[in-house]
Structures are given as C-alpha cells and as structure tokens.
Amino acid sequence: MMVSASTAKFYNARPNGLQRFGAPRDGGARKHRGTDFSHSTRPGTPVPALLGGKVTGTRKPGPGHGFGFQVTTRVVFAGRTWDVSYAHGSRASAFKVGDTVKQGDVISAEGETGATVGPCMHLEVFDVAAGKFVDPMKLVKNVLNGSGGGGSPAVLDHGAAAVPKATRALEWRWTGVQRMLKARHGFTGTIDGKPAVGSIAAFQRFMNAGGFAKRAPRLKRNLVVDGAWGRNEVRAMQQWLTERWSYTGGVDGVPGPGTKAAFGRAEKGNAEAFAAVV
Ligand SMILES: [Zn+2]
Fold first, then answer.
1. Do 140 and 50 form a contact (C-beta atoms < 8 A)?
2. Ligand 1 centre and the CA of 167: distance in Å?
3. Do 140 and 175 share a structural domain?
C-alpha cells in the first residue's frame, strides 16, 4: 500500500515529546491516551489523515471537553476496525460526520484548543474489537511501513487470538449487576442485561468507590470513568470477584471461564439483592 506523501512526512516526524501514549496524568491516576504531534510552536500546521475512512464524530471546545476541536474517523486497516481521532485542532475540521476522508486529506490543523500546553495534534487510536485505546505509534508505524496491504500486522497483533478478549465479559448477562449499578452508582439506562456506555461508566464508578480498582494487582489505580471497556476494567472486576464472589483465578484482565462463573454468582446475588430495582 502506497502511503500519501503528506501523511508520510507528517507522521514520520518524531512526536516532539509533549506527551507520549501512557505518560502519567493527574499524578498517575490516569494515563495519556494518545500521542501528541507538534511540528511548530505556532498553531495551524495542517494535519493529514493517517488513514482513509468515515467521519463518525466532531466536537468543539466546551466545558468538560478537554480535546478542543476534535474529529474522529472509523477506519479499517490490517483487517481490524479502528477509531482514529485527531484533537486540539486550531479550528473545526472541514469534514463533517458522514463524510469520507482519504489518507492525506487535511483533516485538522495543530492547535491549542482544549487542555494542552502548546500547539499540537493529539492522536488517539481505539481498537474497536478489543474495546481499548492502543499506542497510536504502533498503528502509525504499520501505516508508514505499508503493512496493511494484506501482510500480517506484526506490530498490531495483540497476540490475543487464543485468549478471550476483554470485551468477552460484555457478552455475559448483566441484569443483576445493572440493578445494583442503578440502585447505588448512578446508572440511569434500561436494565436489559447488555452493558453499553452508561452501564460501563457506572461499573467504573462502582469499582473505584469500592477500592477494587486500586487494590487490583498491575492496575493499582482508579479507572477512568469514560464508559470504555478494556483490560483494566476486567482487572478491577476480577479483584471484586476475588474479594466478594469466591473467584480464585488470576487478576490478569483476561475474562476466562473462572471469571465468568464468578461473575455469574455476582449476577445472581445482585439480582436477588436488588430485585426491586427495575
Ligand atoms: Zn495529548
């Protein structure tokens, strides 16, 4: 796959070190969810789209939104679906929701809208199937290497083929847990047994309030309450199941059969305890 010249030039530049993926935020309570690219100390450097796709979201600066002018695209690369998002734009993207974007199209411009310490473009990559944010530089590297044209996505392979994905747990029945979340943790949606953003955000609050996230090995911090599900959520959940529901497996973020069985016990127990909540 040929890479557009503007894309290669922009993304080949080393991110200037404002912050890389995983850098601690808020004293370590959170991690930087993206990688910042900065090519100038002045706003306005055009940002070419890393990959072609469809625009699925645009946001502008406002209260509670630290990403300023942001535009999000859904793309398919190396056989996987990714949400690629460009934030802190100096102005609104010329593209609107539903538009098709080609690689190299100027989708944004480096800016300092939202919470940023200087003009940059904050690139975020969300692995839709895995339900988590990943290091954008892995995707960047594979795009620049042109490895999406049928070759195997070596860098992007999470090695998860034989391992249950974190999202597996979202396929389990959640009715009792949703009742508990509704009674105690601000879940306001429908109790339908299928956790979506609202249930997950309430679950994140529950895991933080109970201290399960902070006590979970290899997590040891509160979850970011953003309604997104990933391995950390499973870790916190496994800690809860260990302490309360006789789970004896590993707190490893992998929802295997033992986790499922313990979750089933929690589900039943909560359905009984919160029977009145509908
Ligand atoms: Zn950033």
1. yes
2. 25
3. no
